[in-house]
Amino acid sequence: MSAGHTILLILALPVAGALGIALAGRIGANLREAVTLVCATALAVIVWGLLPEIMSGERPSFTLAEVVPGIDIAFRVEPLGMLFAALASGLWIVNSIYSIGYMRGNRETKQTQFYAFFAIALAATMGIAFADNLFTLFLFYELLTLSTYPLVSHKGDTKTLRSARVYLGVLLTTSIALLLPAIIWTYFAAGSGNFTSGGILAGKLEGPAVGLLLGLFVFGIGKAAVMPVHRWLPAAMVAPTPVSALLHAVAVVKAGVFAITKVVIYIFGIDFLASESSGNWMLYVAAFTIIAASVVALQQQNLKRLLAYSTIAQLSYVVMAAAILKPLAEIGAALHMVAHAFGKITLFFAAGAIYTAAKKTEIHQLRGIGRRMPWTMAAFTIGALSMIGVPPTGGFVSKWYILAGAFDAGSYIAVATIVISTALNAAYFLPIVYLAWFARETSTPANDHGEAPLAAVLALTITAALTLAFFFFHQPVLELATQIFRGAP
Amino acid sequence: MSSWSNHLPALQVIVPMLTAPLVLLLRPSGLAWAATTIASALAFAVAIALTIGVLDGQSFSYLMGAWPAPYGIELGVDAFSALVLLVVTGASTVALLAGRESLNLEIDAHRQPMFYAAWLLALAGLSGIPVSADAFNIFVFMEISALASYVLIAGGPDRRALPAVFKYLLMGTIGATFYLIGIGLIYLMTGTLNLADMELRIHEVADLKPILVAAGFITIGLALKAAVFPLHVWLPNAYAYAPNAVTVFLAACSTKVALYLLLRFDFFVFQPNLAGHDVQFAYFLMPLAALAILIGSSVALLESNLKRLLAYSSIAQVGYILLGASFVSLSGLTASVLHIFNHALAKGTLFLAVACLTTRCSGLRLENISGAARSMPWTMAAFVVAGLSLIGIPGTAGFISKWYLILAALNEGTVGIVLVGVIVVSSLMAVVYIWRVVEAAYFGDAEAGGAAHREAPPALLAVTWIAALANLYFGLSPSLPLALSTSAAETLMRHVP
Amino acid sequence: MELLGLYHYWVFAVLLMIGFYAVIAKHNLIKKLIGLSIFQSAVFLLYITMDKVEGGTAPIIQAGVADPLYSNPLPQVLILTAIVVGISTTALGLGIVVRIKEEYNSIEEHEIQEIDRR
């Protein structure tokens, strides 16, 4: 089987999985969940199977169709996309295990629809990861927005729908009003929208136009949640927790920062962008978002909303790392996508487990919960430490590289931002950890609960382990990320 | 090709026209519907056969009664007319297939045979215009289609359709009469009615003033028929109060046919002969087109009746088609002709979705469809797909024509950049007015709205989804309409000096 | 004298404007239709007068008359068709007015608008 067919298979598999889930859902819940797991595992195996090829410098590509001359639907696997796809497909397995525990534990309705749209969202994510040009990226970007809408509005009550409206409204509007013009502009300026090593815009644009185009991209890719287009992310927290975990800590938001990183590296080119002063503002906006979102997170009482604002801040780490415009920082950006994914999915899993077992959503309710749910809270602690960037967790590794890049570029604003935000992260995460382990329960809960369902605990243990493991074994990821600047075009 | 394919241009008109009196006699009404649908499907098949022939490089020319042109009446089909024929017959067939149930609700059974006969006459007239190469013959077809459409629009139960149709009748007749005056003046100077012959004979005319006047009359007359801003006032109410199936049919093709004729006349007859006509044409149409785009979209923003909202959006879309033509360039015309096809797809699908909504909702104001998406998810999903196409999102048909339009505008220098701004702004306005409908349907309070608790009838829904999928198909693989419109644009440009 | 020599164009133009005025300015739907008929008739006149060849006879081929001078028959044929179209339009228009009268009990434009607004 040629590499091109592998790409097609990777895209088609989750879609076929969605159909299978829809059919199996009519027969029985067990079969449906088996289909989900089989599909997730198969996808991960195939995606991970591409890894050796990419590591050896190959860049398999595949053109599905030429829409009009110059505009193709084309895919090409390059290191950054490979990393993203491997991450999303791998975590889908864990997330599916968790979903089974969560959805059953909470007796959610419309579970078949839930699993089916989840699979479609994954297909869209794969499309984003492997897109070879801006047009293809845009198609799958919109597909991801539309396919996650039913997941966000899953509960179906008025409050949920209102939040889902914000979600859809912000993401669609920014992409159509800003991203699409940016893409069209790029095609006109550069004559193509293909992701090319070193960028395609050098010499085609200059002066303030560069900054303006960059602005259209950064704010147009609303999924990256750079302030002020971050509003959709807290709104999306009305979704069931597995959705928040995989989509709003990994797939969707990472699709946003992934797209921005890709645009910076492969469309603008970091050398070109560094030579144009009009693009400098991106660093400041990202730095502002990190600090502001952390401050907002400090004031949150609802656990999932706190995690959402923490996500906004962490996403801007990636954007800021990309904006530092040094290879070391770009590698840091890639690493942070992985490290944050492991840490944040663990935190969401923990939040969902607490909700399933104890029906608790607010932070002040968590007093002493560590004794009842030791596994969950241990995982939560690891995740929180990773967010802060304490060794031996994954968050330390990526922050290290971003800091190194910042020093390399002499960007003391970036250095200062990282230092301040680390302090802020500690300020909002550590009290929770303290409450959970060291405070005493004020009253015995009504349903004298213990741990969440086994599937959920299993999943969060795996991701917590991954968070720790990433500190020690990040070498392969590092090699892959280094290839962005070394590998064949 | 075999000899029968030579008769295709004539069959295109004859099939619906001869079925019409037959349908009048058929009882019960179901049989009349079936006969009409079969005739329409046959016409569609003929249009497809013609398109295949045209794409093969074949040119169709048919001499009625074997009288040689320019003395006899000539029928001819090229890429441009093939594309318009596809739109006309396709829209008619889709509307008929989908419209059975909604027409049963709107029209008494005993009146249906007459209604379907009028439908076939409208179809015959609308497809007669693109196949005909004779200016007067075109006038007759235009009036056949117009008279039949008045009947169709007035056929519904809504009494507001009557004043609307009366206005349409007055304006339509004035438009047709203007066209007739123009033809008369040209005939006076050249002694011919055959379009190709006209182009040649005008060379010999010493005094071009009457031709200039004729150009004015014909342009204004056809602009009236095509609802070019500011001559659009008949359109919104006529579309809004017509039976739903009729709106699907006419919204997709009636203004397009007038636009087709306008372009054909201007490029075939006037551009090669009147010095500087291309500039006048451009300077006349470009501001009108820009105004149509902006004003049509803004009114649509404020409109709360779903069908009127879409009708105003049609006025803006006519503006896009004219804008492309006003560049008088190959890429501009390609965009223009392509948009004729793509807009018909998008707007047809939107009106089909509206027809779905009418079967279950108490009315078509936004508050009536409040929360409808919960009981009618498939209908609203189709609406969203077609809405995205109308906005021009990549992956849908609407993107392709907007892409070419922007491409063409950027070739025009500074003016072009301003016009790109107009296109972008109006696309954003389209986002907003489509969003208003989506918001009402998805997020509105289902209890407050009159939305019923069932999905639309399966046949209607199936056709709607076929149309919605066509929007996606032609957005991802637009080679067929693109080949036709490129070829059409080349033909048109060949006549510009 | 040149201007008056082509007086049939003047008749055409004046009739056209009278009809056009009535269509636009009158509020009574029947009067509008009358205006529309005048408007169309003006065009019929344009066609019918344009075919006259000075000194020409009816376009009938007669035995023994070689190469006679006759008027152009084609515009007359054309306008016959146009007249039929005109009659159909007027008839349909009147039909619609009758239906409007039934539904609204008025044939005054502003009264109908008033009723619809309510």
Structure write-up:
The complex is a heterotrimer of chains A (489), B (497) and C (118). By secondary structure, chain A is mainly alpha-helical. Chain A has 20 helices and two strands. Chain A has helices at residues 3-27, 29-49, 51-55, 79-105, 111-130, 134-152, 158-190, 208-220, 232-235, 241-268, 270-275, 281-298, 303-324, 327-358, 369-372, 374-388, 394-409, 412-438, 454-472, 475-486, and strands spanning 61-68, 71-76. Chain A starts with a helix and ends with a helix. The model of chain A has no long low-confidence stretch (mean pLDDT 86). Chain B is mostly helical. Chain B has a domain at 285-497. Chain B has helices at 8-25, 29-55, 79-106, 112-131, 135-154, 161-190, 195-201, 209-225, 235-241, 244-270, 277-302, 306-326, 330-360, 372-375, 377-391, 397-410, 414-443, 458-476, 479-493; strands spanning 60-63, 74-77. Chain B has a two-stranded antiparallel sheet with strand order 1-2. The model of chain B has no long low-confidence stretch (mean pLDDT 87). With 118 residues, chain C is mainly alpha-helical. Chain C has one domain (2-52, 70-117): Helix Hairpins, CATH 1.10.287. The model of chain C has no long low-confidence stretch (mean pLDDT 86). Classes of the chains: A mainly alpha (489), B mainly alpha (497), C mainly alpha (118).
Label the structural class of chain A. mainly alpha
| Widest beta sheet: strand line-up of chain A | 1-2
Approximate strand percentage of chain B: under 5%
Low-pLDDT ranges of chain A: none
Q: Mean pLDDT of chain B, rounded to whole units?
A: 87
* Share of helical residues of chain A: over 70%
Overall morphology of chain A: globular
Structural class of chain B: mainly alpha
Distance between the termini of chain B: 34 Å
Rg on CA atoms of chain B, Å: 21 Å
Terminal Cα separation of chain A, in Å? 23 Å
Q: What's the SSE pattern of chain A?
A: HHHEEHHHHHHHHHHHHHHHHH
Shape descriptor of chain B? globular
Number of strands of chain A: 2
Mean pLDDT of chain A: 86
